[in-house]
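Section 5.1 Outputs to date
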Amino acid sequence: MHGFWRAAILVAGAAVLAALVANAGGAVVAHLLWQIGWGFIALTVLRAGYVALRAGALWRTMPKGILPFRELWWIRLSSEAVEMITLTGPWLAEPAKGWLLKRRGLSTAQAVGFVMLEYFLYIMVTAWMAAVAVWMLLDRDTIPAAWRIPAIVLLFAIAVITSAFVYAAVSGTGLIGPIVRRIGNATARGRGTAVAARIEPVERQIVGFLQSNHRDLLQVLAMQAAAQLLLMTEVSIVFRALGAHTTLVDSFVFEGAIKFIDVAFFFVPGQLGAHEGLYSVVAGALGVAPTAGLTLSLARRIRGVLVGLTAVFARLDPSRRGTSLHPF
């Protein structure tokens, strides 16, 4: 995206955020953030655990002995800092992981393949979680009328992606490369073959893991699910600190319902304003004050900065290959 448009969208997102805070009352939002108090320590610890689980999932996608967990944890923590400092979400954080893996001796194809594999499995777990949460909101009839059709479209898209996932895992056949080749050759004067040639090595690596490493696949999916459980716990901690009486099911529905925001608003740097707006809407759909959803979004931005600063200032030495920490 051109720098001008990126800056314009960032300003627009900041304006939306400012409007939401102004509508809720700046003093009210500040008081609610203060009300979380020591809960910010819990949020930071939970996010660190989330990072560790994502690092463990990446470690499990690799053949044993390539890199120790310590290095992968440092790489994942570094990408967290990139994500928070640049306000780019996964769009720069994931390539940053690939670059750091390449610096540690992996080939470009290996680095991209491992990063894409871990992120793909993360997306699958979050998609399934989103599908259940959106279905529950539709069943409760609490989704605003304007959001019902997008919600149904989302459920259909997740069903299609899940079917492709199952097909690849069972057959060992990738779908993206052939689709890109056909569409590209038909619409881009034969360029589809060249583009597919760059995609297919990574896709073969992903499909090969899905088909032949079922035990590791289940472990990675379990780690991704555990990471989501930590995010659900964040929701519960903040809402309870703000006096909202919510259940674990409510936390699950909330966390699941906001999952598609990074994809739907990928063009907004850091999803600034988009996060806060959707958090408010989903909180309202659950019978929680929209200001609580807004406060949760801001609290997560604060704890993200705290975790990112850990990567900047922590005295880690990832070159010490002999002292790996393998928690799984």
